[in-house]
Each structure stands twice: as structure tokens, then as C-alpha cells.
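Hi everyone, sorry if this is the wrong subforum. Our group has a chain we'd like a structural model of before ordering constructs, and none of us has done structure prediction before. Sequence below.
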Amino acid sequence: MFRDIKKFLVGGEKEEEIINLFKEHIEKLSEASETLKLAIESDDASLNYEICELERTGDIIRRDIALGLYEGAFLPGVRGNLYRLAELLDECLDLIEDTSVYFSLLNGLHPAIRDLCLRIAEINCKMVDYLYEAFNSLYQDSDLSDKTIKIRAKEQEIDGLKRQIHEKMFDIEIKSFWEGSILLKFLDSLISISDKIEDSADLIQVLNVSMR
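Answer:
Right subforum, don't worry. Here is the predicted structure as C-alpha cells:
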């Protein structure tokens, strides 16, 4: 049962519903991240359908969170940041969906960058795991600084992989403007996922301070 630990929580039942919705939202983000990783690993563009379904579910969860906050869950001082967190999680799912769509339009990834892209997808999955742990720390009254530090470290690792991909791009023969455009959009979306996860972690830190 959800415990009323933080002073900004009122009652408890409505807040528990919102907390559970957030947990479900991050779980859907985790599923989508893992599915994208599998799609790249197995070169299976058909997994795009699963990711689109997860994104739609995430959008429903975001609306349910908004409705719960509007109906009075949590005090007004934290509702705005909680809704912004729901938006950021939804934007993460949108980026994963976009990445999946662009991947489905490519005729596979060039060997020069395939392993690097897969590594980024793997790191994104790990970052979502840390994000889930950080969110749990909000209401379990435990320290979340180690989780957010790990997220930032993984983001820096992705920055390094991005530079390697840019260097490898000179080795790739692009056959048409559209092929090059789709590849660049795929890479941009894939790399941007970690930025949104880091933004979500930063907001969780803000919530942690405001709920003390």
C-alpha cells in the first residue's frame, strides 16, 4: 500500500493511482526500448507494429495521469512538474516510435555503424531501468542521486558513440537523397532518446526536492 511519506501528498488513494500510472508508463517505455533494441539486433522491422502499440498505450496513460492530477491528486505545487514528467515520458515513447519507423524504411543498417547503433539501443534500455529506480526512490524515501549519476554517465557514453558514428558515416555509400535523409533521421531519433531520459531524471530530482 502506498505510504504517505512526502508532505505534499494529500489523502493517499488518488496519489497511489497516479504513482501506479507513472510506473506503468515507465514500464511501457522499457518495453518499447527493449523492442527497438531487438529490432536492430535481429534486423526485424516488423517489430515497429509492437512499438506503435506501446506508444499508443503510453499516450492513454499520459491522459489518465493528466485527468487524475486535474481531479486533485497531489497538491498544486507539484502537479505541474508531475504532468511535465508524464509529457517527457510520452516524448521518449514518441522518439522510440519515430526511430522504429525510420528503421523500417531502411534496407538494414550498414555494417560500419550497426554495432554502434545497437550499443546505443542497449544503453537506452539501461537508462530506462535507472529511471524506473529513480522514480521508485521518490516515494520509497530513499536516495536517488546514484541513479541519476548513472543516467548521466550513460548519456556521456552515448555522446562518445555518436562521435564514432559520425566518423564512420564517411565510409557509407549513400545511394539517394532519400536514403541519406532517412538514415540521418533514424540516427538523430535514436541518439535523442537518451536526452529525453536524462531530462526525465532531472525532473525527478526536482520533484524529490519539492516533495521533502
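For your construct planning: The chain has one domain: 2-211. The domain at 2-211 is CATH 1.20.58.220 (Methane Monooxygenase Hydroxylase; Chain G, domain 1).
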